[in-house]
Design goal:
- This protein is α/β, with parallel strands linked by helices and 216 residues long.
- It folds into two domains: 3-84, Methionine synthase domain (Methyltransferase, Methionine Synthase (B12-binding Domains), Chain A, domain 1, Orthogonal Bundle), CATH 1.10.1240; 90-213, Cobalamin-binding domain (Rossmann fold).
- Helix content is 57%, strand content 11%.
- Strand 1 (90-96), helix 5 and strand 2 form a beta-alpha-beta unit.
- Helix 1 packs antiparallel against helix 2 (17-29) and helix 5 (104-115) packs across helix 9 (199-213).
- Bound molecules: CO-5-methoxybenzimidazolylcobamide (B1M).
- CO-5-methoxybenzimidazolylcobamide binds next to helix 3, helix 4, helix 5, strand 3 and strand 4.
- The site of CO-5-methoxybenzimidazolylcobamide has 37 residues, from helix 3, helix 4, helix 5, strand 3 and strand 4.
């Protein structure tokens, strides 16, 4: 593998945001594709941190600074990951569900959606069901996209689907779910419409659903 890619992974693990930024810029200047920098540099570094976190070899502060370095790196990549000049195909509301503060995956989903020309209203993290419903009323999106990273917050996806039913809006909204603990079986069990395993497939599935909805 390219040396600069390994350096990006290492700098991310060490939480060195400024160095990650410089290295990502250097990798782009070398002509390394943005997708490869993301997968083999940034996400690979985050995977190592995740494994160490699981094994109690690093703790929340280290994970947080690595997460910040990840965000700095993805910000540099954003224009390169987006399909240039993609014209607007529709609108999505996106958020991490109530009780859950993880936003790195959600932010990647936003980036990939925008790259497909899907306008995103990002509600942030810790978003309660009623806020998704309220935003739906205000924004009239094609898709409501929910992210969850904790087994303890997966249930909020079910609560959000129920909130749309209770509001009489369920048949007007396509609900997509994703995040590390989420599976297709879970998606079906809570009555959501689409499960996507990663940000790129989420964007593809969202675009397809929007085009199908609009009869294109
Ligand atoms: Co947390 N955390 N965390 N954490 N954290 C996990 C999720 C955990 C698996 C780590 C572990 O123990 N092995 C574990 C959950 C265990 C469980 O639920 N069974 C855990 C825990 C326990 C916790 C705390 C409770 C720890 C504590 O305080 N004791 C706490 C909870 C806080 C809260 O949310 N209320 C906590 C806190 C944190 C930090 C704040 C330190 C930090 C978050 C920083 C941030 O997001 N700004 C953090 C992090 C970084 C992680 C790990 C290490 C990495 C997550 C990540 O960003 N991965 C994570 C371990 C892991 O996942 N292996 C862990 C990179 C990211 C690109 O992947 O988000 O999975 P991911 O997104 C993927 C896919 O899932 C998908 O696309 C992305 C790839 O393209 N995807 C979607 C995501 N959303 C999607 C939506 C879609 C479609 C696809 O459609 C809408």
């Amino acid at each position: 593998m390219n040396a600069v890619i390994d350096e990006i992974s290492l700098a991310l693990q060490q939480g060195k945001a400024k160095i990650v930024k410089e290295l990502v810029e250097a990798a782009l200047a070398e002509g390394i594709p943005a997708g490869e920098i993301l997968e083999n540099g940034l996400l690979a570094g985050m995977d190592i941190i995740a494994e160490k976190f699981k094994l109690n070899e690093v703790y929340v502060p280290e994970v947080l600074i690595a997460a910040r370095a990840m965000s700095t790196g993805t910000a540099v990549l954003k224009p390169y990951l987006a399909e240039s000049g993609a014209k607007s195909v529709g609108k999505a509301i996106l958020g991490t569900v109530k009780g859950d503060l993880h936003d790195i995956g959600k932010n990647l989903v936003r980036m990939m959606f925008e790259g497909k020309g899907i306008e995103v209203v990002d509600l942030g993290v810790d978003v309660p069901p009623e806020k998704f419903v309220e935003a739906f009323r205000e924004e009239s999106p094609d898709i409501v996209a929910l992210s969850a990273l904790l087994t303890t917050t997966m249930g909020e996806m079910k609560n959000t689907v129920r909130a749309f039913s209770d509001a009489g809006l369920r048949d007007r909204v396509v609900i997509m779910v994703g995040g590390a603990p989420i599976t297709n079986d879970f998606c079906e069990s809570i009555g959501a419409d689409i499960y996507a395993a990663d940000a790129a497939s989420a964007a593809n599935a969202a675009k397809q659903a929007i085009l199908a909805r609009r009869g294109v």
